[in-house]
Amino acid sequence: MAKFNSQISMLFIVVAMVCAFVPVYSVDDNEAKSSWDTCLVKISPKCALDIIAVVFGNATITDSCCHDLVQEGKVCHDTLIKYIADRPALIARESQYLKKSDDLWAHCVTISKSA
């Protein structure tokens, strides 16, 4: 039960950080805003949160969200994760997040090919 509470707490922290940082910066950066507008229409909000929880926390992802992620495309995935990881509160662990992002992508490609 403690592990579940810890995962839920991490998810809320990640969601709060994304909500706090992303909208502020995306308005000022037209290219990033365009990426958000273009890429996020390809993926459900639940899957987007799951992907963020995997990369910036210790969550797992469902096969259906993997399919959505692969449909989103590698460029969109990389751009959005890099954009979030560049925030001042996260930059110290950016390389760790980018590795987790690449690992997630490879996992999802494998899942999508086997379906």
From TrEMBL:
As given in the record, the signal peptide range reads 1-26
- Tell me where in this chain the Prolamin-like domain is found: 38-109
Which intervals of the chain form a coiled coil? none
What keywords tag this UniProt record?
Answer: Signal
Specify one Pfam family. Answer: Prolamin_like
Q: What is this protein called?
A: Prolamin-like domain-containing protein
Q: Which organism is it from?
A: Capsella rubella
